[in-house]
Specification:
homodimer; alpha+beta; Aldehyde Ferredoxin Oxidoreductase,  A, domain 1; 6-stranded mixed β-sheet; 17 strands
Chain lengths: 561, 561
């Protein structure tokens, strides 16, 4: 039975929304954004009583479709002030779906000081005191949760960053090893969940894989798709997403020293090869799946020189933004910072960009590893500099008087310089999510356009945003490729699973409808089409001596008109 | 000859816009907001190349109409992100008008590091290096300017706060004594002017009083009006605007300790009577006119105990917000803080509210006078805490994790608790200017409504905003009273001066048209009707045990629909 669970933190009342058929064939981002758009006042304080946070597995999450373990989380973002969806792998999504939960809505705000653990089992939902883990870092809290609830029990967890109300705080989800390393990273959803009074959610129920309506056809499609993915994505399996370090450096789009340069002279020290070598030599691992049913397995387990666990899931964007964007070129140092961010529940991207901006503003030197550690620790200890950085790159930069602040709609760019990768630049500028590559990344060569020419990029970005939306609502990892070639497979899986008969056009229309809901929410929240642009310095300051952002402003503005 | 001067700081080119008849009968805020709305991209960086700052005397500025010396300044605000007009008395407006200048538009951004002094005489306009006064405080810079250009020469001046790019920086204008004590205070226009590369504007020209078209009728009307004002506003003349301390305390709307209370137990120490007594006993002065032709003379010159000049123009809002709102009850201490703000070019209101929020956030104690001085100095010295406070109350509060932040649209409330004065509350919530009492203040008893009841307040505020707009476009000080009873006189003065034949309804329609232009600019800039509300805590936290802000959200939202 499909169900929607609603937790009202004002009264600690738990209810089930009436099961309606209309949510049967939506899920993931379509459900989180739809509920937020319908139920949340666009002008509300993101950390106040009127915001809500919605967790929803994708349509295919919990099925045997490959790479379909994503769990979407949505709210009004304390970072952008607009609607936000951030989705995550790990073990929680599949269990939620298997337990028949379409959406978990948490609303209101506990008037009690204590925080709660929300435990959801098959036949019971309860709130218990989180006192033993309040203010605890994620690894310590995770240890407690696995001890209390079993080491295979998926959890969803807010770190001290979220408890401190920082708008760059993440929501962590358990990985396959029970570690808190999968993060709904962007937009400060950790601060929203904590503001409600929730420290952790434990999913102690069970359930079978969800059965498709058209069993045989679904089985065939998913098998072919799994084969295609496991053979076609071997670089990701072998080197992790860090395979992109060299690719993006080659494309000249690797952010260095707060987006001053697009290539890093010490790139060989932070490449995917280094990552894979270190993992192999020290007893770590690449080819680590982040959720059951993943066939790409781009995650990794990274050990230090002594062979002890240092961090898991060291990603390209983290390496670029906490690494070369801050003048760091030592993979072990970057891994340590990644661990700190995971442990405190901080978005590595927003943190990296905020640190880069702080370096530009003179708060510390580029490459000052110890200074970075001190500032990251200060974020959760509540030092003034820490709290400032914790507001994200925009507030940090403005306060320090920096004019080169790489943000759109209040959110830091991820690890692709927009001047050298103009499809992604268009996504940064136009996505209702703010500058977020996961909303429609156009990697080098992917669109068939000249990545450095503005021509056709806005249209290509819009297509990528729609295809990405399909991944996000289906619960598919974007590494299956939100590209036109994947559309037939996504359509087939959707139709077979639900017994529907959508055309590809109808699938795209469904995706666009959700995007428009998001755009409309944002308009009311004060993010209008006029904010569809990149910061001025990308338009005036050249990269590689001749590249600027020259996307037509009118096209960016009118992408969703 | 009416003229518009345009200074392009990109090229340092000076040009005159073609003199068109359509600007003949507009001025002040109608002209600044009209030009900003037409020429400035709503999404531009307020401190970037694309913003413009416009200075325009009111329609009647430069005439013999009483209290008509106001000079409007307008730009996209770095504080609110929306359109801003802030008008100011002092000696500059009348001279600009007498020289035939309808508007001065400063655009672009100097690529040179040096700042400039813009000198405008009757037959020449030139830019010279501001090197001798760069980074100098306002009193020092003013001394230089009066020595160089003559002690009666009006000037317009940016302090170190503006040079530091702080979004609460003011533009100072010379008073009748040549001191930099009249400030276009709100919305950070000082940072905008400095960002263009301008440190000071000197008006070394001359010109006669502007002659009205209908000489006799104008003369009669202005004489009667002057008589009415000089007899009807004697409390303002005698006690300055500080007369409001007791009035607003009595009404229960005096902000105390970051709007925690509405009455101050030490109110007798900071009243208008204390101000007047100190002025008289120490060789200062009340009844000091801020510009030629003022008949109300609400300004003052305040000396210290030794009889030395301490500050000029110590206003009610400063006393309330830097005083009791921060737990201070010593008039001399408040006067010293007022001087510091004037000298550095900082809005005393935004500064007071930001300090109150910082006190609530634990950065310093309420009543910590030395701590306040240190933070204010830090704003221009560039300490991190100073720079943080310099971003205004909202950023300060968010960074410190404060939930009670008294701002609307990013701008601090002025010195009237909205729970006890609901007409002003409606203006705070709905004005395109953000929380700004000068956009339509509904003082106790003024509207004829119960000031504590929500009934009719939105309509009353809208009327006050239109009448205030008429003052602002005519160049009349709002102390002439933007009330229905003044409308016939304002209409008569306008018609006689220009030889027009507007009805009162047409006057109000003209005002509303400008308000709508401002609203429309804001919508594009991301300030929509959904932001027409007060912070949540005013709706949930009682004042005097039973007062909350209970203005209907729908009415606030649709005031300009």
């Amino acid at each position: 039975m499909k169900k929607t669970i609603r937790i009202d933190m004002d009264t600690l009342a738990i209810s089930h929304d009436p099961a309606t058929d209309d949510i049967r064939h939506i899920g993931g981002r379509a459900l989180t954004s739809g509920i937020i758009a319908r139920e949340v006042p666009p002008n509300c304080d993101p950390l106040g009583r009127d915001n809500k946070i919605v967790l929803a597995p994708g349509v295919l999450t919990g099925s045997s479709a490959p790479c379909s373990g994503r769990l979407s989380m949505g709210a009004k973002s304390p970072l952008t002030g607009g609607i936000k969806e951030s989705n995550v792998g790990g073990t929680a999504g599949r269990i939620m779906a298997s337990m028949g939960i379409k959406a978990l809505i948490i609303q209101g705000k506990s008037t009690q000081k204590e925080r709660f653990i929300l435990e959801i089992s098959n036949d019971n939902i309860k709130l218990t005191s989180a006192e033993p883990i309040e203010q605890k870092d994620n690894y310590s809290a995770a240890k407690y949760l696995t001890e209390q609830y079993g080491n295979k029990t998926p959890y969803i967890l807010v770190g001290p960053g979220g408890e401190a109300g920082l708008p760059l705080a993440t929501v962590a989800v358990s990985d396959m090893d029970g570690r808190p390393t999968r993060h709904a990273g962007r937009g400060g959803l950790g601060a929203v969940l904590a503001s409600k009074g929730i420290k952790a959610i434990v999913l102690s129920g069970k359930g079978p894989l969800l059965a498709p309506k058209n069993t045989e056809s679904f089985k065939e499609t998913r098998k072919a798709f799994a084969k295609e993915l496991s053979t076609g994505k071997q670089a990701l399996t072998k080197f992790g997403t860090a395979v992109l370090v060299n690719v993006i450096n080659e494309a000249g789009a690797l952010p260095v020293n707060n987006f001053r340069k697009g290539r890093f002279d010490q790139v060989k020290n932070i490449s995917g090869e280094v990552l894979a070598d270190n993992c192999q030599a020290r007893g770590g691992k690449t080819g680590h799946g982040c959720h059951p049913g993943c066939v790409i397995k781009c995650s990794n387990v990274y050990h230090d020189k002594e062979g002890n666990h240092l961090t898991s899931a060291l990603e390209y964007e983290t390496i670029a933004l906490l690494g070369c964007n801050c003048g760091l070129s030592d993979m072990d140092q970057i891994a340590e910072l990644d661990f700190m961010c995971d442990n405190y529940g901080l978005d590595t991207m927003e943190t990296g960009v905020a640190l880069g901006v702080a370096m530009e503003g003179g708060l510390l030197e580029f490459g000052d590893f110890n200074g970075m550690k001190e500032l990251i620790t200060g974020m959760v200890q509540g030092t003034l500099t820490g709290r400032l950085l914790g507001q994200g790159a925009l507030v940090t930069g403005k306060t320090l008087g920096v004019t080169r602040i790489p943000t759109v709609k209040g959110q830091a760019l991820s690890a692709y310089d927009p001047r050298a990768l103009k499809g992604t630049a268009a996504t940064y500028a136009t996505s209702p999510m703010g500058a977020d590559h996961t909303a429609g990344n156009c990697l080098p060569g992917r669109t068939g356009l000249d990545d450095r020419s503005p021509k056709g990029q806005v249209a290509a970005s819009k297509e990528a945003q729609k295809l990405t939306m399909l991944c996000d609502l289906l619960g598919l990892c974007i590494f299956v490729g939100p590209i036109p070639q994947t559309l037939p497979t996504m359509t087939q899986l959707f139709n077979d699973f639900l017994g529907m008969n959508h055309t590809e056009e109808e699938m795209l229309a469904m995706a666009e409808k959700v995007l428009l809901e998001e755009v409309q929410f944002n308009e009311k929240a004060g993010i209008t089409k006029y904010q569809n642009d990149l910061p001025e310095f990308f338009r005036t300051e050249t990269l590689h001596s001749d590249l600027v952002c020259d996307l037509p402003a009118e096209e960016l503005m009118n992408i969703y008109n």
